Amino acid sequence: MKKEVRKKMLELRNKIPQDLKTRKDEKIALKFIEFLKERHIKSVLLYASFGSEVDTWRIFEYCKKLSIKTAFPKVKEKILEIYWVKERSELTKGYKSILEPCNAQKAQLEDVEVIAVPGLAFDKNCFRIGYGGGFYDKLLCRKKGIAAGLAYEEQIIDKLPVELHDVKVDLIITDERVINCV
């Protein structure tokens, strides 16, 4: 069941025209930054967006301007380790050619106030389906901060097939709304 959802949602996301995607990315970035400002957030974990994922580079630039400490994940033996990153040049291609920190200072998850979470699909109860590696489920089990899923409105469905190891995010920020599950 999850496999079909993954395939369908990836196709759907890949079909969003580039000019529309750019506008949607801008809306999501602005909502995310507003969320950080309202709560006086000082540290975030971003993912290095690739392919048709919600773009995080605009968010990274905002965070730098606002002096919000930013970490990025690196895959190490089936788990995500996180590192503080000040410049995009501190990232290099890693797991599945996704940009990962290199020569960066290791961060602790408890020092991160907000985690931006990627996904292929989210439901209205804040469950998500990623690419199937379980990396974010393992990370979210240990989190102290707020987990915010970033998604295009097209990626929101009524109900996902959920398994015991699946971990919800606290909210989902789309180009059209914020779904709060806390």
TrEMBL record:
It holds the Pfam family 5-FTHF_cyc-lig. ATP binds at residues 2-6, 128-136. It comes from the Bacteria. One of its GO terms (biological process) is folic acid-containing compound biosynthetic process. Its EC number is 6.3.3.2. It catalyses: (6S)-5-formyl-5,6,7,8-tetrahydrofolate + ATP = (6R)-5,10-methenyltetrahydrofolate + ADP + phosphate. InterPro entries: FTHF_cligase (IPR002698), FTHF_cligase-like_sf (IPR024185), NagB/RpiA_transferase-like (IPR037171). Substrate binds at residue 53. GO terms for molecular function: 5-formyltetrahydrofolate cyclo-ligase activity; ATP binding; metal ion binding. Transmembrane segments: none annotated. Keywords: ATP-binding, Ligase, Magnesium, Metal-binding, Nucleotide-binding. It is an enzyme of class 6 (ligase). Its cofactor is Mg(2+). Belongs to the 5-formyltetrahydrofolate cyclo-ligase family. This is 5-formyltetrahydrofolate cyclo-ligase. It comes from Thermodesulfovibrio autotrophicus.
